[in-house]
Amino acid sequence: MQKSRSKFLILVCFLCLQLFSETQAQRTFSNLKRISNGRGTLFGNFGWNRAYYTEGDITFKSYGYDFSLKEGHFSDKQSKSFSDFLSVNTPNSPQYNLRLGYYFRNKMAFSLGVDHIKYIFDDGNTALLSGTINQGIDSIWAGEYNNQTVITNRTDFHLENRMNYISLGLMRTEKLFQARNKTFALCVSIGIGMGGVLSSTDFNFEKKYSKKAISMSGFQLNAQGSVRLEFFQNFFIQGELSGNSVYQNKLNTRKGDLTALSKQHFLYGQRAISVGFLIYFKPINGCDSCPVW
């Protein structure tokens, strides 16, 4: 009888310990904090942009010509229909931004991004022409020039570049406000980035219209600031402003002709709006710093 009681007490103690352990585990799990700018958080966003360009100089060089157009004006090229706006796979697709990032420490993240930007050398552009264009190359501009004013015409001269800026970035994010029930929060970020430029170019000159000349044309630097409104700790809407400096030293203008090149350098500003998500790989416990294994 005594042995039975002892076995029963041992069993009760064992069940109590199990129940206590499970309760503690549940409490620990419930205390895990998901911090959107904390170490271990993955984020991604997709959105649309507009760009605004400074005046720029462009040099064109190939067999029979070597000239530059100075003080030229550029404009971004936007889609005209709503169906084009929703698609990213058509020639008329909108200008878009795509970014994936990871907070490697609290408030600090690195990111990989692609900015798709389309710009044209404006029609009716008043620019300064310098250089040499051989006779027989172009019936309108043939000759030697030194800062002579010309007005471009789409029929005789046109440049359009679909530029893909593939960047690596570093950013810092500060949380300004979070609701007590954590349904929404407000964060601000600043960052810098750099990367290569992959271009697809349409060029009309010397009565030849070449389309989709692909080239790794140069590199770009940027700095940006953004405001992020988060919902339910998993989704966000973001507004962003950035300043960009692009150097394209080997922009191919003729498909299949590696000697037809353009050199460009200009600055542009960009505004973008995007939607995104947050995934927490390493939430932290109530001490706000200790990792949970």
Instruction: Give helix % range.
Output: 10-25%
> How many DSSP-defined strands?
13
SSE order: HEEEEHEEEEEEEEE
In total, the number of domains comes to 2
In the CATH scheme, what's the topology name of the largest domain? Porin
Number of distinct helices: 2
Tell me, rounded to a whole number, the average pLDDT. Answer: 85
The N- to C-terminal Cα distance equals 45 Å
Main sheet attributes: strand count, strand direction, barrel closure: 8 strands, antiparallel, barrel
Please describe what this structure looks like:
By secondary structure, the chain is mainly beta. It folds into two domains: 1-32; 34-51 and 77-125 and 154-280, Beta Barrel (Porin). 12% of the residues lie in helices and 62% in strands. It is built from two helices and 13 strands; from the N terminus they run αββββαβββββββββ. It has helices at 2-30, 82-86, and strands at 41-53, 56-62, 65-72, 74-76, 96-105, 108-121, 126-133, 143-151, 158-178, 184-205, 208-231, 235-254, 257-280. Strands 1-5-6-9-10-11-12-13 form an eight-stranded antiparallel β-barrel. A hairpin with a 3-residue loop joins strand 11 (208-231) and strand 12. The longest helix is centred in the first third of the chain and has 29 residues, at 2-30. The two termini are 45 Å apart. Mean pLDDT is 85; it is low at 14-31.
State the main characteristics.
eight-stranded antiparallel beta barrel; 12% helix; elongated; single chain; 293 residues; 2 domains; Porin; mainly beta
Q: Quick recap of the structure?
A:
The protein has two domains: 1-32; 34-51 and 77-125 and 154-280, Porin (Beta Barrel). It has helices at residues 2-30, 82-86, and strands spanning 41-53, 56-62, 65-72, 74-76, 96-105, 108-121, 126-133, 143-151, 158-178, 184-205, 208-231, 235-254, 257-280. It has two helices and 13 strands, in the order αββββαβββββββββ.
